[in-house]
Each structure stands twice: as structure tokens, then as C-alpha cells.
């Protein structure tokens, strides 16, 4: 099956790139298969094959397809990789195991408030999204504000922040952005780095990515309605 072949190829390439990343021995990053725009019938073969880590960029889309899949297959780990509006926090915390787009004070505070009062929370950890390219249209905390923001989330709000995420600018080499993200993670004692997509995951892995986010290299180009990852939604 083409889908499984693509998946196996990504896995092999990621592992090979991991061998080049000298610090850890035989390191293989986690592959987050990005399923936005794809329905359960496209996703199921990957679940049947044994893959368990997936990413979605919209809360509502995830709510439509993942509860049934989570019921059918155990141990699914679902990551939110798109911008989160404060009015969707409750829903997001109920369905996503990991939220990678913690990117502003108001959102962090809304999450902390919901964490304190809700019983029905699936989310176990967070990544802070950093706008490494300082692009106006893109979400993420600015690099120069990252240290304070991470500290605020961890120490004041007691949120389990474990890593950083970035989406480099479309043009130009991504390596500077991956290096910057890693530097910020190191000085804040964060262990995990979500960086690298279909076009640049091998570079990301050689630079220390622990999580890569792969959509089109597995499913083919998205055909309809896909929000590009650089589209910022609102910042409320
Ligand atoms: C869609 C998306 C991806 C996957 O992109 P591909 O180029 O299809 O691999 C990765 N990260 C984010 C944040 C996305 O929105």
C-alpha cells in the first residue's frame, strides 16, 4: 500500500538522519503524522499498521474524527499543531494529549484556569511555539520573549511545558531556525523539539528534532481547504 510505503520510507530516513545527530546513540525521532483534511478511512490503515502519534491543526476537525478512532484504537497520542483560540481551550484540552501551540500569555492563563477546574482533561503536556522568523502573520512567541514566557508558564502557572515547536519561514534555509529553537530549549532545560515537516525533516533531525510533523510526504499533497501552517488565526 502506497501510504504504508511512504510511512516506512519516512521512518527509515528519519532514523538515518538520527544516526548523524551525534549526541544520542541510535536516536529515532517521534513521527507525528499530520492528518488535517484526511478522513478516518485514510487514517485507519496507519493505525492498523501500528502508528499511534498524530497531529491536527484545528480543534473542530479533531473533534469530528478522533473520538471514534480513539475508541477503536488504544494509546493514540493526538497533538494540536495549529493556533488555539481562547474560546476553544476547553474543547482542546479534552481531546488533545499534547498541545504544541502554547504561544501567548492570555492563552496560557486560559489553559491554567481550565486545568484547575475541569475533570475531563486529556492534555498531559505542552510545547511552546516560537516564531523564530519573527513573521508578523505567524503565531508563536518571539524569540526574545521566549525565556520569560516559558518561565511564566512553568513556574507561575505550573503548566507541564516539555518542549518547543517552530515553523520556519517558507523561504530561506530552515537550519538557522532549528538551531535557534534548540538553543532556546537548551537554556530553558526543555528536552523536546518539534521541528521539521515533509520538506525539511531530515535537516531538523540532524539538528536535534525529537518530533517531526509529516503530512504530505505520507498522504500526498493536500487537495482542499487546507489551512497553511503559517496562517495566523486570531490572537485573543
Ligand atoms: C500541515 C502541517 C504540517 C505538515 O506539513 P507537510 O508539509 O504536509 O508535512 C506540519 N506542521 C504544521 C504546524 C502543519 O500545520
Low confidence ranges: none
Shape: globular
Please state the average pLDDT score: 93
Structural class of the secondary elements?
alpha/beta
Helix content: 40-55%
How many helix segments?
A: 9
Largest sheet: 8 strands, parallel
> Could you give the order of the helices and strands?
HEHEHEHEHEHEHEHEH
Outline:
The radius of gyration is 17 Å and the shape is globular. The protein has an eight-stranded parallel β-sheet with strand order 7-6-5-4-3-2-1-8. It is α/β, with parallel strands linked by helices.
Report on this structure.
The protein has helices at 2-20, 40-49, 59-72, 89-95, 105-117, 143-156, 175-187, 201-206, 216-219; strands spanning 30-34, 53-56, 77-80, 98-102, 125-129, 161-165, 192-194, 211-214. It is α/β, with parallel strands linked by helices. An eight-stranded parallel sheet has the order 7-6-5-4-3-2-1-8. Helix 2 (40-49) links the parallel strand 1 and strand 2. The chain is globular and about 50 Å long. The model has no long low-confidence stretch (mean pLDDT 93). The site of pyridoxal-5'-phosphate has 15 residues, from strand 8 and helix 9.
Amino acid at each position: 500500500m502506497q501510504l504504508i510505503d511512504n510511512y516506512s520510507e519516512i521512518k527509515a530516513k528519519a532514523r538515518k538522519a538520527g544516526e548523524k545527530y551525534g549526541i544520542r546513540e541510535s536516536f529515532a525521532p517521534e513521527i507525528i503524522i499530520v492528518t488535517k483534511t484526511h478522513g478516518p478511512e485514510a487514517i485507519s490503515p496507519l493505525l492498523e499498521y501500528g502508528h499511534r502519534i498524530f497531529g491536527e491543526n484545528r480543534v473542530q476537525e479533531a473533534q469530528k474524527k478522533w473520538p471514534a478512532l480513539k475508541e477503536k484504537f488504544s494509546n493514540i497520542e493526538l497533538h494540536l499543531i495549529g493556533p488555539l483560540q481562547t474560546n476553544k481551550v476547553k474543547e482542546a484540552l479534552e481531546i488533545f494529549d499534547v498541545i504544541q501551540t502554547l504561544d501567548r500569555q492570555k492563552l496560557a492563563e486560559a489553559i491554567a484556569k481550565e486545568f484547575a477546574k475541569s475533570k475531563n482533561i486529556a492534555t498531559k503536556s505542552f510545547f511552546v511555539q516560537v516564531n523564530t522568523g519573527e513573521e508578523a502573520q505567524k503565531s508563536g512567541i518571539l524569540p526574545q520573549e521566549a525565556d520569560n514566557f516559558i518561565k511564566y508558564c512553568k513556574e507561575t502557572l505550573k503548566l507541564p511545558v516539555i518542549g518547543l515547536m517552530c515553523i520556519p519561514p517558507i523561504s530561506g534555509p530552515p537550519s538557522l531556525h532549528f538551531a535557534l529553537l534548540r538553543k532556546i530549549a537548551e537554556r530553558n532545560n526543555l528536552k523536546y523539539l518539534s521541528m521539521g515537516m515533509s520538506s525539511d525533516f531530515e535537516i531538523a533531525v540532524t539538528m536535534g528534532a525529537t518530533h517531526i510533523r509529516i503530512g504530505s510526504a505520507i498522504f500526498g499533497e493536500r487537495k482542499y481547504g487546507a489551512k497553511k501552517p503559517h496562517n495566523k488565526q486570531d490572537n485573543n
